[in-house]
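Lesson 9: reading folded outputs for more than one chain in a single document. The general rule is that every protein is listed as its sequence immediately followed by its structure tokens, and records are never interleaved. Here is the first one.
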Amino acid sequence: GSLPTLSRDAAKAMAERAGAKVASSVSAKTDYVVAGEDAGSKMKKANELGVEVISEDAFLQMTA
């Protein structure tokens, strides 16, 4: 899904500046999934694996 105020590239850059490794897929080793509107298969996979799903607001607080 899309994030309300950030593009994927902007969100990726912010996460990387904060020291995160950004992956294009979800696995059991994933720490967080940032989910926006109409989150789809990655959010479903995160839920199945017990990976924490956070909002854009929570993401922005983490990277501030």
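And here is the second record, again sequence then tokens.
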Amino acid sequence: CHRLQLTSILADADYKAAVQYAPDSAQGKGKKCWGHYESPDLLSWRFTGTVLYPDSPDDATGVYSGSAIQDGDLLYLFYTGNVKEPGDFDYIKAGRQANTIFVTTRDGHNMSEKTVVMRNKDYPAFCSCHVRDPKLWRQDGKWYMIQGARTLEDEGCALIFSSDDLINWSYDRRIYIPDFGYMWECPDLLNVDGREYLSLSPQGVPHGEYGFQNVYSSGYFRLTDGVPTDYREWDKGFDWYAPQTFIAPDGRLIMIGWMGIGDIPYTNPTTDLGWQHCLTVPREITADGDGSLLQNPVRELEKLREDETHPDKDAPFEILLPSDILIGVQDSFKIVLDEKLYLTYDKNVFSLKFTDDSIAFGRDVRKTIIQDLREIRILCDKSSLEIYLNGGEQVMSTRFYPGSESISFRCEGQVNVTVYKLKPMDINFVD
């Protein structure tokens, strides 16, 4: 599975989610499809199979990213149909079709026929052939769509379209700042406490020691009168990209990200078992008093907690997987997992550093600057870590592979540790 494509709610309050799915290959080769999951509670998930295939001339080389929106008892799925034409092309300014396609469904399983609503000729003239990842919303009685784009001058931007009927679309405007990457993928407009934000995954931003450390970034701008400012990355870990948000029945804004990135220099050993990437746990998105966004695991996850322990911090101990670990900290500290992964905080720098490639598979170190670190929450299973700092002010996610049902844990410094053993999420597959 690759990135999350949609998560939506039908009238029965079930969560419907699709992922970009390459059933032929754990390396992402072969057909690029959509697979479908559903859940009653964000804890129990049922995979019902592949629901969209690249089986038409308008999506012949891939059912790419998109989203869904509900209208009455119908769910409208919009996605980018990718077509790479044969020939000697650069596939940036020529040779690629980026078709915006929709289908409808009542149950998330059975799809209508495909309808193309926009082709390359329908996008602004300043765009290259890279326009993709439609996300929709309804506002003041009108439908809106945002798409990511790469201009002919190799600069990223987001395009806004509007429609009265979900079929006929008109270009309204673009969101853009100069010199911020060559392509903006997976754009998403958020409204949190009356403030507007643009979530996106920019490609081509220069790397730094404490930011933009991954091959591609993913973060959000604040929007002031439609102008993006104050970019912040969603996640400073190794494995995070292309998040998607939706609104839960109780009004919470929830985000799920792809715990993976394309074109990475590290690997995942599970490819030998026929699978590779995964999704993060659903995260609740809220804002602090300054308007910065916070991320925390959905509260439903606490229902999986059992066997609370308060281990002696002065001696190493074993943690069974999966676990939910809460750590109160003071001043500088060092936490060591399995004697191969070091979490340290010193002089306002928090770092995540692997020292043994047997669990890292090419991952090395990620750093972030955070003032006055007070608390850490770690969600840990047999192939992933999600690390939440100061109640979600910053997050670092990574894959790691300890190869056992437990890991050793030791710490140096003034810390208080609470460990909850977690029941695994219930994942079922339809034959």
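What the second record shows: Helices lie at 357-360.
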